[in-house]
Design a protein that fits this description.
There is one protein chain. The chain is built from seven helices and ten strands. With about 270 residues, the chain is α+β, with helices and mostly antiparallel strands. It has four domains: about 70 residues, no CATH class; about 100 residues, Band 7 domain (Tetrahydropterin Synthase, Chain A, 2-Layer Sandwich); about 45 residues; about 35 residues, no CATH class. The protein has a three-stranded antiparallel sheet, with helices on one face. A three-stranded antiparallel sheet has the order 6-7-8, with helices on one face. The protein is elongated, with a radius of gyration of 47 Å. The protein starts with a helix and ends with a strand.
Length: about 270
């Protein structure tokens, strides 16, 4: 009996080993950081859209398939040629950041698949960008309204792709290339506008300086008027007498000569 049990166990072990060798690669799945998995059950109802498998090691039936999605934030560039409001051709370089919604990769896989960048995101961005830039003039895109145009493209694209289990983080206009003649004209116009602003600044500064001097002159004039009204000959004579009295009290004063005119003041002579 013992001899019969040993071969049976050996056969079972060998069969198990063969099974693992043949199907091990499809049974053992490792989901890396930044990834999520969704399982397709071949004999159990198909794609399990509701269950999302986290990172780590997973064992599945060999006839099932684990579809692994990278759900990290990605950055992609796109070159486009679009028409402005006045029909001129403009080349722009866009960059955009996106990622699938991790909790909905089952629905993403069922409806779109892993090529969502080419099938959904890029076409939506191209369509919205052409529509938005078609409402603006080249000089607005080149200078004054670039951020507003970025925000408008981002808002419209975000709404369109969110319904498809995707998330758009940002859209940036990296570069704008206009026809050389148009670019020169725009740069010249911007230069003239800057010079005009500088000229207005200088005029405003000169006007304020003139106002300051006018206020200062009025202040001096008022001060002189006050002095003229308050300082009389009698006051000056009285102040002179007070000063003479103070000097006469000094130990160095020796001789006091009294003036003989009506308006004369005493004169102090002598000293140590």
């Amino acid at each position: 009996m013992e001899n019969q049990g040993l071969p049976r166990a050996l056969v079972t072990g060998i069969a198990g080993l063969i099974f693992i060798v043949l199907f091990g690669s499809s049974m053992f799945v490792t989901i890396e950081p930044g990834e999520k998995g969704v399982l397709f059950k071949k004999f159990g109802g198909g794609l399990d859209k509701e269950t999302v498998y986290p990172q780590g090691f997973h064992v599945i039936a060999p006839w099932n398939t684990m579809h692994v999605y990278d759900v990290k934030l990605k950055d992609t560039f796109e070159k486009m040629e679009v028409l402005s409001k006045n029909g001129l051709s403009i080349k722009i370089d866009l960059s955009f950041r996106y990622q699938p919604v991790a909790s909905q990769i089952g629905f993403l896989h069922d409806n779109i698949g892993k090529d969502y960048l080419e099938r959904i995101i890029k076409p939506e961005i191209r369509s919205v960008t052409r529509e938005v830039i078609g409402n603006y003039l080249p000089e607005e895109l080149y200078s004054t309204k670039r951020e507003a145009i970025e925000d408008e493209i981002y808002a419209a694209t975000k709404i369109n792709i969110e319904a498809k289990y995707l998330m758009l983080d940002a859209i940036l206009i990296r570069d704008v290339t206009l026809p050389q003649t148009l670019r020169t004209a725009i740069e010249q116009k911007l230069k003239q506008e800057q010079e005009s602003l500088e000229y207005e600044f200088k005029i405003d500064k000169a006007r304020k300086e003139a106002e300051r001097k006018e206020i200062e002159a009025k202040g001096i004039s008022e001060f002189q008027k006050i002095i003229t009204r308050t300082i009389t000959p009698q006051l000056l004579k009285w102040k002179g007498i007070e000063a003479t009295q103070e000097i006469s009290k000094s130990p160095n004063a020796k001789v006091v000569v009294i003036g003989n005119g009506e308006g004369d003041l005493p004169i102090i002579l002598g000293g140590q």
